[in-house]
Amino acid sequence: MTSTDDSVTSTGPAALRLVQALLDMPRSLRVDVSPEDLARDAAVRLEELLGHAVTLRWADEVGGEPPRSADRLTLRLRHQDEPFAMLEVTAAGALPAEVTWALAHLAHDLTSVIDASSTRRLRGTLRALRDAMSSAPDLGAFTASAVDLAARFVDADAAMLLLGGPDGPAPLATLGAWDLDDAAVARRRRIAFDATHAPGPFRLDDGLVAVPIASSPPARCVLLLRFAAERRLHSLSLPLLTELASVAAPFLDARWRDSVLTELLELNNASEETSTTEMYGRVLRTALRLVPGADGGTLLTRTDPDAPFVYRAAEGFDLEQLRENPITEAAARAWYGEESPGWHQGLPRILHREDADIERLGAASTPDTDPDVTNYHLIQSTLCLPVLRDGKVMAVLNLDDLHQGGGLARDSSQLAYLFGAPLASLLHRQQTRDVLRRAALTDELTGLANRRAFDQALERELTRAARGGVGPSVLLMDLKEFKAVNDRFGHAKGDEVLVAVGTVLRRSLRAVDLAARRGGDEFLGLLVDTPASEAERVKERIERKVAELDTGLGALHINVGVASHELDGGDPDRLLRLADSRMYEAKRAAKRS
What are the residue ranges of CATH 3.30.70.270 in the chain? Predict the structure, then answer.
């Protein structure tokens, strides 16, 4: 061969055999190991071939260029385009030109092998991730598999996947031992929170690496990897971790969507045994738990397209204040925008404080509510989801970011949208049950509770009283000479009188009490947690209010008998018998007078 700068000078068969062995060496290395192990194997194999000392130095250990000399040659290895390691060959004398040439090619080939090995390992990990996605029975099993795969891919000692929530990032899956003292937990949460807004993975100086996992910013999940103190992170390719995260993100999104739909199905199944008021609260709490970035919100519903909306549930706001004032559709739509067609399509919309006057929108949505109790000043961003039934908006789910700022994003909107159809079905079915339940427990003429509803309520209050407390009192009432009203003025006038008396009873009792019609002209009252002395005062108030009724028939008189848990015990039949007996005593006393 001719000696030139880029050719090999022949010095004999031994040199040619060495050159060939150097060029063949990459094919003899294991490629199923970590980049560090592959570099170590290369150093050992190279030393065997050359018969000279070979020193392996990691790129982050070397401070500047190594000294140049005729008997020393440095092979620079790279990993994913980043400096990775150096193989320093120290010979007894000057290295032949053809060997120097072969070693230069070897450095290039080893870099390719290291990259190919990492890529092959990444592909294997991604295949395993896809298998876990298809085979894992639930989100918990999938995340546990994903964390294990990620840790093995980078040879980490421990790994933790954290999910952002209203109270900050919390572990979703863990691998290995983690320090659980308050300071360590708080630090991990701070790191995870910082990572949610980071453009990609980053290292910390104590062996921790944070990897944000997101299909779109901000990241909702963050993978923390911890490495042993003696393990240097020179081989940890952040671009490969970025690729792993980008592939894992849609899998996590898909599993999370499945989780949302599963929980919505469970809500529908649970609604049979759950009161509507409780169901409203459960729906809102479920949305806050499953829609990322939300830590407060409200749920409004209506039963008719022309009726106002009523606040049914609230988290982070004063429900008692809000539900006192039903609001129009225009007011409910303040958070959405009057001109947006998405309102009638059931599409969620997000508004951010930097783009909208939150306080002004809040005042428009609740014009009759004291702004000092609405907490609108806390809202950093808000999501409004109109819930459609038969093409009409029948409910509005408002979810708010009260603390983070920028917490509600595109993925929040995508998951909130999943609530639309199931929530519409759930609320419609629940409202239908309420109508049927009210019909079964309501007196058709007066709108009061019927005997069945009264008996259920009495049983419930007596059971509660058995655990301690004053317990209820019972009123049993009938109208004096009511048959004469029907005989003389007709049943229509009699019904009018009964309705008027029912109104008096409803207004004479507290909201927690229950007024019921027993049948005919007989009525019942259940006074919750009421001692006998207070029940007597309620009795006198009812007698006075009925006597003041203007029915065109002159003064009415109602006979009232009272029995109380406090004095008469906790047997429901006994209480009703005593109240009945005392009512007839009152009736006989009225005749004598």
Answer: 442-592
